[in-house]
Write a structure and sequence with these properties.
327 residues; alpha+beta; Replication Protein E1, Chain: A; 2 domains; five-stranded antiparallel beta sheet; four-stranded antiparallel beta sheet; 13 helices; 9 strands; 41% helix
């Protein structure tokens, strides 16, 4: 069962009586309500409850498979509190790992950012953005064209002689009814002339010439930005539009959002967070031991257990979004 360490959550966007996902369309029998408790929902999804319902509706409209929908709806269920031998606490639960799930995407982005920073440690690198000219072409075709053009760019002498390694992520934005897919690329190697690169990009695409490149002055911020898009691929302009979000989900289905080359090759495989247990003598008790379910612990805290309340406060359980009746 995957794990997550406690983090602070944003304010809940819905009441405790509206925590289940509701479809804005006639319900389909196979999508029964998930076995996730209110306490689990608040802890896992309080910061994006309203948007989560919109994403779920778009996933259905995009034809997402039943098992993926079930995992998304059930994300955070079975939450168990565990205590380490050092006195730390964590939550283990069922996580969907969907790129459309905000908490799961954030966990992947953090793991990927750590992996990228490790490879970039002490290195000078540049940040490149490649765009396509705006058009009314279907999004899926535009993504195909973007990735195909980037593949051709990497074959060019200019690229091969200057770039040692790169990691590119797809970002989808939308304005004035048109899609604007582009690639953000972190690259190591020699100086690359922006004008020469723009000319090569225009020759490859036939109509696109906007290329932005600069040496990175704030590595932490830039890596975090790239890793965030590597985990989801869209911005707020897409998230707020049901039809656009549906098309994005449909168009990105089965695609990897990360393209790695050279010394970056394989770094995207480290985006899934993995919990590593400390090495201890097997004669001793396991490093992590269960304390109880999250739901049971909240119930105990609400009925006066100081110990349960202390544990939940250490886990930053969002009491202020849970309701008025808290201890």
């Amino acid at each position: 069962m995957p794990t997550t360490n406690a983090t602070s959550l944003e304010a809940q966007e819905t009441s405790e009586h509206e925590y289940r996902l509701h479809e804005p369309y006639p319900p389909r029998p196979e999508f029964s309500l998930p076995p996730i408790t209110l306490e689990e929902h608040v802890f896992r999804h309080s910061g994006w409850a309203a948007h989560r319902r919109r994403v779920f509706a778009a996933m259905i409209a995009a034809g997402t498979g039943r098992s993926a929908l079930h995992r998304f709806a059930n994300c955070g269920s079975g939450a168990v509190i565990e205590r380490s031998r050092d006195g730390d606490y964590r939550v283990r639960a069922n996580y969907c790992r969907s790129r459309w799930c905000k908490p799961c995407a954030a966990a992947r982005a953090a793991a990927l950012a750590d992996a990228i920073r490790l490879r970039l440690s002490g290195r000078t690198f540049r940040f490149l953005t490649l765009t396509l000219r705006s058009s009314a072409t279907p999004l899926s075709d535009q993504i195909d064209r973007l990735t195909r053009s980037f593949r051709e760019l990497r074959r060019q002498k200019l690229w091969r002689e200057t770039v040692i390694g790169s990691i590119a992520v797809i970002e989808l934005t939308r304005s004035n009814g048109c899609w604007h897919p582009h690639l953000h690329v972190l690259m190591t190697g020699l100086y690359v002339d922006q004008k020469a690169l723009a000319e090569r990009w225009h020759a490859i695409t036939g109509d696109s010439y906007i290329v932005w490149i600069k040496q990175v002055s704030n590595p932490a911020e830039t890596v975090g930005y790239v890793a965030a898009y590597a985990s989801k691929g869209i911005d707020a302009s897409v998230e707020a539009d049901h039809d656009a979000l549906t098309e994005a989900i449909r168009s990105l289905k089965g695609r990897r959002l990360v393209i790695t080359t050279g010394e970056f090759y394989g770094v995207e495989k480290q985006e899934e967070p993995k919990e590593r247990e400390p090495e201890i003598n097997q004669e001793y008790q396991p490093y992590w031991q269960p304390v109880g379910t999250l739901t049971a612990l909240v119930h105990r805290a609400r009925h006066g257990s100081a110990e349960a309340l202390e544990i939940l406060n250490k886990l930053r359980f969002p009491w202020t979004t849970y309701g008025a009746a808290w201890p």
